[in-house]
Amino acid sequence: SFSGHGELCARSRETKQFLLTGKEALTQFPSLGAPGGSGPGQGHVKQCELLQLSRKQRRLCRREPGLAETLRDAIRLGILECQFQFRSERWNCSLEGRPSLLKRGFKETAFLYAVSSAALTHSLARACSAGRMERCTCDDSPGLENRKAWQWGVCGDNLKYSTKFLKKFLGQKRIGKDLRAKVDIHNTNVGIKAVKNGLKTTCKCHGVSGSCAVRTCWKQLSPFHEIGRLLKLRYDDAVKVFSTTNDAVGHSELAGPHRHGHSGKQPALPRPTDLVYVEDSPSFCRPSKYSLGTAGRTCSREGNCDSMCCGRGYNTQSRLVTFSCHCQVQWCCYVECQQCMQEEVVYSCKQ
Ligand SMILES: *[C@@H]1O[C@H](CO)[C@@H](O)[C@H](O)[C@H]1NC(C)=O
């Protein structure tokens, strides 16, 4: 269940100006510039200036009304999902240390690339179907009765457009021997694929009392939390790779360890769904240029305190929390609640 996530979102919304200060550069992904002044109602060209974009990206942004806002939404979506998925890990995806992390080849770097590209793909496809972009609209791929669906006022999420646009926007080129560039592109594509695999066909019947005389179908993206959860599982099983020259093809490619039941002289290629990395991660226990360390982090005693606190032990503190209780619906139309208090024990990692 994602009930905890709803709270996270609400809290994060209040602090987003603090969270997103523009230091969180994503090398090939856009990031947010200085906060402030970026509200709706400003011209979209102006909004493009507020994002940190490459020259080519800025050109594309200016040409596409609606894109700047969609990019901003996507960056937030990716960051919040990352923080949610890593809330009980030593590395909690805070923005502190992110620029250094993105230059390395850790598993965490892989996740950041994948979740960012997934968020961009997802937000762009949604923006198309919601009519927030000028140059794209509902999914019009053949096979489904999309045109008919439009008639009924349903609009499929346009993943085809968003994927194509994103590849152009990120400017993926074939890069000869550069291992890191290959790894980044691979992980970016894992993110795009995760969104694609979550695409579901939804159908609706029309006609007298459910007779289904007319059935319309359209494609719908799964909620972004599902994609985030999938990518987190991929992070847990990420594959360490190195560069190898495939003599048969004559160029270098990524190779991982042999998989179970897989033999032969050639090392196994990572699957298109595997997140890949090239360097072992630091422990993230102590403050470093990659994170603030885990001192002061809350943990759960039965769960992750030992690993989160890196063996330093934890403090136990009890505190009173208030919550709404004994709620009753009053005629008409509001809910009246009492405030109850409860003692709660909080564990947090020692220095
Ligand atoms: C991540 O952990 C640090 C402490 O190590 C804390 O200051 C920060 O607020 C946490 N960030 C999130 C998003 O939970």
Kindly describe this structure.
The chain has 351 residues and is of the alpha+beta class. It folds into 2 domains: 44-293, no CATH class; 305-349, Endo-n-acetylneuraminidase fold (2-Layer Sandwich). The chain is built from 11 helices and 11 strands. The protein has helices at residues 3-19, 44-49, 55-63, 67-85, 98-103, 107-129, 146-151, 159-170, 179-197, 224-236, 305-308; strands spanning 31-32, 51-52, 200-206, 214-220, 239-240, 242-246, 251-255, 276-277, 298-299, 314-330, 334-349. The strands form 5 sheets. A 3-stranded antiparallel beta sheet has the order 9-11-10. A two-stranded antiparallel ribbon has the order 1-2. Strands 3-4 form a two-stranded antiparallel ribbon. A hairpin with a 4-residue loop joins strand 6 (242-246) and strand 7 (251-255). Helix 6 (107-129) packs across helix 9. Mean pLDDT is 80; it is low at 1-27. 2-acetamido-2-deoxy-beta-D-glucopyranose (NAG) binds at residues 83, 92, 94, 292-294, 296-297.
Q: Looking at the structure, what is the overall shape?
A: globular
Q: How far apart lie the N and C ends?
A: 33 Å
Number of domains in the coordinates? 2
Helix content: 25-40%
Mean pLDDT: 80
The hetero compounds bound to this protein are: 2-acetamido-2-deoxy-beta-D-glucopyranose
Rg calculated over all Cα atoms = 23 Å
Q: Would you identify the regions where 5 or more consecutive residues have pLDDT less than 50?
A: 1-27
> How large is the share of residues in beta strands?
15-25%
Number of strands: 11
Order of helices and strands: HEHEHHHHHHHEEHEEEEEHEE
Number of helices: 11
Question: Which strand order does the major sheet show?
Answer: 9-11-10
How many strands, what sense, and barrel or not for the largest sheet? 3 strands, antiparallel
Structural class: alpha+beta
Protein name: Protein Wnt
Function: Ligand for members of the frizzled family of seven transmembrane receptors.
GO molecular function, one term: frizzled binding
Keywords: Developmental protein, Disulfide bond, Extracellular matrix, Glycoprotein, Lipoprotein, Secreted, Signal, Wnt signaling pathway
